[in-house]
Design goal:
seven-stranded antiparallel β-sheet, 31 strands
């Protein structure tokens, strides 16, 4: 078994659109490793640097963001995190365990250079598991904390980016995401293998599972679950190709075991061991941190997926057909981002029938939010169309002929139909289907519509 934290002068390269933008953590950090961070291009990390032939493990992408966070990607807080092979390994592996009477005074806990996990059994007894350096793995940690051991800072996701609204109104909801939520260990010799574990090491390189945390001992080994748990769902079949189906949600333990779900998110009783599944991330594996859901895309899978440039070209191709509004007879332009340049050219879709039109007052029913479509006379809601531009969420390549309902994000037919069937954890024991681009819950059955453009009319 393997794990780590890096308290840390080593920072992974945080990459967006091929640029290394992550800065190394402060070398003055008192918990730094003895070896300093070495950037592939020397001591400094600059925005114009690009990693030369860096080995890429994969990407973690937060559901609900269409390519960037609403306030903008900054440092370790962003919508996407790219995992690259580190200049020096920082993984750790289990070495020994023993029982102590006063865990907070034990040498392993007090030694800030020693990685350890403390399982508190009672006020007078705890099991300490020590971890030693592992030259074969790289460790990456994810959580809500902005402390240096966390490589990817993840905050709660609000549907439709309403986090900005919530902040402006002064509403700060209590987060259910753990400060040190989980860790991923990537195999340096086989980059296709990346394993996920619940909980991450803090600045003192410790993980504490308190007296109330779910834990157990079997075959002289101890393991446990975190308060709200880390859930994973592997796809059944190849995610990239459009034939995959969603799998079953499981819970991963601190030691990397895979279990069926507890009765509720933080129930005391653990689920059953799932023998035929493991904690190795597959292309398309979903990771739920109770407040945010992440998608893992392998480097291999991403190589077969459309790029952002490919998606932009598809938008350009539709716009080149000069789709028209059948009422105003004006040309419509599909925007790449939600904020449209021209309200007059902004296309709208009638969610009941799929006809794409411009903004007009025809069919507006008095005191109702619905409109009657002038093409087929079906009444229903309308919404602005916008391209789903985050490539990681696509299960295949092709024209964006469908849109999610009720948000209007466009994507390929197979992509829309895949996500419509994925039930994302919601609250302590509920599940809902959401648009991966904005996290808005899907409405209606099905939660999408086929788009009907009036184009190539000249």
């Amino acid at each position: 078994m393997v794990i780590r934290s890096d308290g840390s002068s080593e920072s992974p390269l945080l990459v967006e659109e091929g640029e290394a933008v992550g800065q190394p953590h402060s070398p003055h950090n008192k918990h730094s490793h003895s070896h300093s961070h070495v950037h592939p291009h020397g001591a400094q990390s600059h925005h114009h640097d690009k990693p030369k032939q860096a080995v890429k493990y994969g990407e973690l992408v937060i559901l609900g963001y269409n390519g960037y966070l609403p306030p903008g990607d900054r440092g370790r807080r962003r919508s996407k995190f790219v995992l690259y092979k580190r200049p020096m390994p920082n993984g750790v592996k289990r070495s020994k365990h023993y029982v102590v009477k006063t865990p907070h005074c034990s040498q392993a806990i007090l030694n800030t250079k020693q990685h350890s996990i403390s399982y508190t059994l009672s006020r007078t007894q705890a099991v300490i598991v020590e971890y030693t350096e592992d030259e074969d793995t790289d460790m990456f940690q994810i959580g809500r904390s902005s402390e240096s051991p966390i490589d990817f800072v993840v905050m709660d996701t609000y549907p439709g980016g309403s986090e900005v609204v919530a902040a402006s109104e002064g509403r700060v909801a209590q987060s259910t995401i753990s400060r040190f939520a989980c860790r991923i260990l990537a195999d340096r010799s086989d980059p296709k293998i990346a394993r996920i574990y619940a909980a991450g090491f803090d600045s003192s390189r410790n993980i504490f599972l308190g007296e109330k945390a779910t834990k157990w001992q079997e075959n002289r080994e101890i393991d446990g679950l975190t308060t709200n748990g880390v859930l994973i769902m592997h796809p059944r079949g190849q995610f990239c190709g459009g034939e995959a189906q969603c799998g079953y949600w499981r819970e991963v333990s601190v030691g990397g075991g895979v279990f069926s779900l507890r009765e509720s998110r933080s129930a005391q009783q653990k689920g059953n061991v799932v023998e035929d599944e493991n904690n190795i991330l597959q292309d398309g594996t979903l990771i739920d941190l109770c407040g945010a859901t992440l998608l893992w895309r392998s480097a291999e899978g991403l190589a077969k997926s459309p790029t952002k440039h490919d998606l932009e070209e598809l938008v350009d191709a539709i716009n080149a057909g000069r789709p028209q509004c059948p009422v105003g007879l004006n040309t419509l332009v599909i925007p790449r981002k939600a904020a449209s340049e021209s309200a007059q050219q902004q296309p709208y879709v009638y969610l009941k029938c799929g006809h794409v039109q411009g903004h007009h007052d025809w069919g507006q029913e008095k005191d109702k939010a619905t409109r009657r479509c002038p093409m087929c006379l079906v009444a229903g809601p309308i919404v602005k169309l916008c391209m789903g531009i985050e490539p990681a969420f696509y299960v295949d390549s092709g024209p964006p002929t469908y849109a999610f309902s009720p948000c209007g994000h466009m994507a390929t037919e197979k992509t829309v139909k895949y996500w419509e069937k994925v039930a994302i954890p919601h609250g302590t024991n509920g599940y809902i289907a959401i648009c991966p681009f904005c996290a808005v819950p899907l409405e209606g059955s099905p939660g999408y519509v086929k788009l009907i453009f009036q184009d190539h009319v000249d």
